[in-house]
Amino acid sequence: MKIYNTLTRRKEDFKPLVPGKVGIYVCGPTVYDFIHIGNARPMIVFDTLRRYFEHKGYDVNYVTNFTDVDDKIINRSIKEGIPASEVSEKYIVECKKDMEALNVRPATVHPQATKEIPEMIEMVQTLIDNGHAYEKNGTVYFRVRSFEPYGKLSHKNIDDLESGHRAESHQLKVSGEDEKEDSLDFVLWKPKKEGEPFWESPWGEGRPGWHLECSCMSKKYIGDTLDIHAGGEDLIFPHHENEIAQSEAASGKEFSRYWMHNAFLRINGDKMSKSLGNFFTVRDICASYDPQIVRFFMLSAQYRTPLNFSKELIEDSAKGLERILNGAEKLKGIVDKANGKAVSEAEQSILDNDIPKFVERFDEAMDDDLNTADAISVIFELVRFTNANTDENSSSDYAKGLYDVLFELSDKVLGIHIERASEDMDASEIERIEALIAERSAAKKEKNFAKADEIRNQLLSEGIILEDTREGVKWKKA
Ligand code: AMP
Ligand code: ZN
User: Fold this and answer.
1) Is the CB of 230 under 6 A from ligand 1?
2) pTM of the full predicted structure?
3) In this structure, what DSSP letter does residue 229 have?
4) What is the number of helices (H) and of strands (E) in the chain?
């Protein structure tokens, strides 16, 4: 598999540290509110990466954190008059519900910053002991100039960074808030302020800096060197640059061999973000659309391509997904008949010769830096092929063979279910819909097409799709 590595700015062949195993760390959300669909992009994309590695036979250790101590959480807790831990615990629960809806599998471990404080204190102490960090009045800073490769991920020059920081740090120095040796230095441990959560440390009561938590949690749950570290592209600098500095200065080993960054989900050309106020929460969107459509939409672009969110594109995704669901439904119909027919020679030849080619092409797309857009095109072709090569005379075992492949690629690897979620509709609702359908059929018989169309459109607006077939009118929920 080839992966675009932000570190080298090239697509490289993926080689795991230990054959057959892969350790992936993905920066997770700061839990102070419901997540928005921009936050869902890395979740869905890297969940798909994990699933693809599993499809290839790897044993995957997938770690993604919750940032549960942060200014935004503290501000929210002050606003609501509840402890910060209550804010974060609440939104972790809500985030997990959204992940489940989007079919993002739980990680191997979901560490939380507040539960890993001893490890963070230990790393800070190591950095002080080896000269990479220093303490000033209860704040511990990382000494950026002591780490020669600083800037290697973001491809920034340390002197350019320094001049950029000068004006800003001058103001801080004047206000007496900053006692850094160098304006580039960043915080590893900060002293508590009144009313904030804090922990005891050798430098007094305080809390860890944001960058530190990912360095510590990835080390604890994966090891000193990760195979892949991932997150949104806004994290390249300073967050990931600082993680590299902390981890490599502490361990003396390479921190991560591959760095993957997803492009933004945009809205009207701007990054979707909380601060711009141009966001939709996952919860809001899933009230209007099946979460599977949202997942399908997210994977319809390769992860390094910016993706614009619009109603039209979501509706295109809904139509695309419908084609897959219909194809799967047709196969399932033949499987469920269990007709006991022997697989014919022609059917066997399709299973042995044609179908593996679709799998190969799907894998080729995914091997090319997780090109889910092309992989979805292969699934469409597979569905077109199975539609054209099955009918009521097909053997159930053959249809099962086709269904299983579609299931593996779409459901297991891309995480896009191929069966419609069964919604329990109460009997009176079904009765009402069927009465309207009967009324429409009567109108058609009387050549009152205007009335027939009116009924069809009314049902459509409720998300009920009618299909005129030889056996009569069939209906389903969109
Ligand atoms: P945050 O809670 O802001 O730290 O974000 C959690 C994750 O979501 C990070 O990996 C961000 O890079 C990512 N993220 C935030 N906004 C977007 C967006 N509009 N598109 C894609 N990823 C995003
Ligand atoms: Zn992180």
Assistant:
1) no
2) 0.88
3) E
4) 16, 15
Cα(first)–Cα(last) distance of the chain, in Å?
Answer: 36
CA 72 – ligand 1 centroid, Å: 15
- What is the Cβ-side half-sphere exposure of residue 331, based on CA atoms within 13 angstroms? 26
CB of 235 closer than 6 angstroms to any ligand 1 atom: yes
DSSP β-bridge partners for residue 141: 134, 187
- Please tell me the distance between residue 186's alpha carbon and the centre of ligand 2 in angstroms: 15
Residues 6+ apart with CB under 8 A from 12: 2, 3, 4, 5, 258
Tens of pLDDT, residue by residue over 331-386, are 999 999 999 999 999 999 999 999 999 999 999 999 999 999 999 999 999 999 99
Q: Quote the ligand 1 centre to 29 CA distance (angstroms).
A: 7
Q: Where are the beta strands (DSSP E) in 192-304?
A: 206-208, 226-232, 256-262, 265-267, 270-271
> Which residue has its alpha carbon closest to ligand 1 atom 8?
39
Atom 4 of ligand 1, nearest CA residue: 29
Binding site membership of 65 for ligand 1 (Cβ less than 6 Å): no
- 258 forms bridges with which residues in the sheet? 228
| Ligand 1 atom 2: residue of nearest CA | 29
- For 296-326, b/e burial (b = at least 16 CB within 10 A) is bbbbbbbbbeebebeeeebeebbebbbebbe
